[in-house]
From TrEMBL:
EC top class named in words: transferase
Keyword Repressor: no
Name of protein: tRNA (guanine-N(7)-)-methyltransferase
Gene that this polypeptide is encoded by: trmB
Metabolic or biological pathway: tRNA modification; N(7)-methylguanine-tRNA biosynthesis
Binding of substrate, residues: 150, 182, 217-220
Gene Ontology terms: cellular component: tRNA methyltransferase complex
Catalytic reaction annotation: guanosine(46) in tRNA + S-adenosyl-L-methionine = N(7)-methylguanosine(46) in tRNA + S-adenosyl-L-homocysteine
Function: Catalyzes the formation of N(7)-methylguanine at position 46 (m7G46) in tRNA.
Length: 238
């Protein structure tokens, strides 16, 4: 019997990746810097995990047993590297589709000698569905996902009830889901969706204070100076 969330027809809400579904991202062809290309070639074989349609042995992937934090859509990897450096006792699995971002994070891994990071370059929904076992994660980070700000594109937003239900199923009791956005209407949607998930409980009355482990990025600082808001949401698995 499948452990995936089901719809009213009894069919999994997330399914074989060969089937059609709405994507929450657009694959962009980015230009690799020399350093990124070198990092992909030299460090990719060690720190990148190929996508597979079977469960990943996390202990074997990291070469040790430790709590695993999943980060979805790490961009250029600066935040991911900073958090991993500050929490050497935890393992971090980053998922990103864009090659320059993967190369950038690999470059940071090499420069900072980070041993607790691994990368899967693939669609996050498929990675979570097929590679991660139920209750295998200590936490999930989703920082500044694409807001798809046009109303007709809102359906492409990553934080939707089916995906949140799937993520929650992969988080161990006591683990957490931390989302952040600088778009107010997306923050409101996130709060509504996360609050409606019965296996999650809000750690705050509404939005949370930015946890100390999430660095304040240059992009974020610039936005705050311009009067833009940033909203953090931290929910724990019951």
């Amino acid at each position: 019997m499948s452990d995936l969330p089901e719809n009213a027809d009894g069919k999994p809400l997330f399914y074989d990746p060969t089937e059609r579904r709405i994507r929450s991202f657009v694959t962009r062809a980015g230009r690799l810097s020399t350093g990124q290309a070198r990092a992909l070639e030299e460090l990719g074989p060690r720190f990148c995990i190929p996508y597979q349609k079977s469960l990943l042995d996390l202990d074997a992937a990291f070469g040790r047993k430790a709590p695993v934090i999943l980060e979805i859509g790490f961009g250029m990897g600066d935040t991911t590297a900073a958090i991993a450096a500050g929490m050497p006792e935890k393992n971090f699995l980053g998922v990103e589709v864009h090659t320059p971002g993967v190369g950038s994070l690999l470059k940071l891994i090499g420069e900072q000698h980070l041993e607790n990071l691994r990368i899967v370059q693939h669609d996050a929904v498929e990675v979570v569905t097929n590679m991660l076992a139920p209750e295998s994660l200590a936490g999930v980070h989703v920082f500044f996902p694409d807001p798809w700000h046009k109303a007709r594109h809102n359906k492409r937003r990553l934080i939707q009830p089916p995906f949140v239900s799937l993520l929650a199923s992969r988080i161990a009791p006591g683990g957490y889901l931390h989302c952040a956005t600088d778009w107010q209407d997306y923050a409101e949607q996130m709060l509504e969706v996360l609050s409606a998930e019965p296996t999650l409980a809000n750690t705050a009355e509404g939005y949370a204070e930015r946890p100390a482990y999430r660095p304040n990025t240059k992009f974020e600082k610039r936005g705050l100076r311009l009067g833009h808001g940033v909203w953090d949401l931290v929910f724990v698995k019951r």
